[in-house]
Amino acid sequence: MTNSTTSSEWGAIFKELGARPIINAIGSLTLVGGSTPPAEVREAMEAANDAYIPLTELEDAAGAIIAKATNVPAAYVTSGAGSALTLAAAAAMTGDDDAKIEQLPNTTGMKNEILIQQRHRYWYDRCLEASGATLVNFGTADGTSADDLRNAIGPNTAAVHFVMKEEAPDSAALSLEETIAIANEAGLPTLVDAAGQIYPLENLGKYVRMGAAFTCVAAKYIGAPQSTGLALGTSDFIHTLGLQSFASYEGRRIRGIGRPHKIDRQEIVGCVVAVRRWMTLNHEERLADAEQRSMIMVNALAGIPGVSATFIENVIGHHAFGVKLDVDPGVTGLTNQDVVDRLKQGDPPVWTRVRDHETFIILTTFGLKPGEEQIVADRIAGLF
């Protein structure tokens, strides 16, 4: 895993399979693998091969450790943050009623509506619907008021969903504080998608401490295997979420919808070690490294006519620092999407992207091995 990108051994396992390894300048994208667990996480996962263990017992033990580390009442390791959303939606509808748990995704006879701000509709709200829940919008694309939420609550409301992005606050959306207050007053759980809110450290579990019943975190962002996530929440809600899981399906012989969301003992152990590591990591050193490597790309691209490469100062969330790249097609003859496409055509391919609703490219250091930031910069400069 330490082979140089320029060596013949780099990505050899993929090449043997007939697939092309890439240089990852796109970040923690699920499509390209999501994460590279550090050595101590990989070693713990290897050690977990030595013995078998009932996964219901391991989930309980792991959850207790993670809950203590993140200062919340309870936690559960899921198959990614998306899995946590599906299980949470199911938990909100069924409670601990086994008959209802086995009835899903058929929601006949149960409260099945999850309220979500129109401004918060996003790519991953589909994970909530996978439980059988129906999403109901409140507010408008222009903004949301407290009355919009109050008026949306009805006899079939099971929960209120909130999408948290502290690095990009939305002043036109109803705040989480107001959402929790109104939901709690109505006796409804607030579900918070905080998948990327892993820094500052107090953000891990913060929204549960504010009064939300549940929040999810994508554990890939903290060095756990990509296929793991954290469900953090109140003791009652996390207990109910666990009843929906693959482990409960087999251990209790209750046919919940979570059976396909399976993870193994190695992944659960790796997730625990990743959480412990993240909470004790020297983040000043981590951020200094990301800043230095980002500036290597900025400096290497400076002065190219029609190319703007600016340093991103944000440290909140899962992608610290980085480079905003924007090219002027009138000067360079290339659009930003042209740059993305041509970098993918190189050898090895360099992956970047123009995200939905954006017109520029973000380069991150999250998935770059040491030295690859210079390769990325040189490849981009070479296009011009």
SSE order and pairing:
Layout (H helix, E strand, L loop, with lengths): L11 H5 L6 E2 L14 H9 L7 H16 L3 E5 L1 H15 L3 H6 L9 E5 L8 H4 L4 E5 L7 H7 L4 E7 L12 H10 L4 E4 L12 H4 L4 E5 L10 E5 L1 H9 L2 H6 L13 H16 L2 H19 L5 E5 L11 E5 L1 H4 L3 H9 L5 E2 L9 E3 L8 H11 L2
Parallel strand pairs: 1-11, 3-4, 3-5, 5-6, 6-7
Antiparallel strand pairs: 2-8, 7-8, 9-10, 10-12
Helix pairs in contact: 2-12, 3-12, 4-10, 13-16
The 3D shape can be described as globular
Under the CATH scheme, the architecture of the largest domain is: 3-Layer(aba) Sandwich
Proportion of β residues? 5-15%
Label the structural class. alpha/beta
Order of helices and strands: HEHHEHHEHEHEHEHEEHHHHEEHHEEH
CATH class of the largest domain: Alpha Beta
CATH superfamily of the largest domain: Type I PLP-dependent aspartate aminotransferase-like (Major domain)
Estimate the mean pLDDT confidence. Answer: 96
Show unreliable segments: none
Strand order of the largest sheet: 2-8-7-6-5-3-4
Q: Approximately how much helix is present in the residues?
A: 25-40%
- How many helices does DSSP assign? 16
Distance between the termini: 32 Å
| CATH topology (fold) name of the largest domain | Aspartate Aminotransferase, domain 2
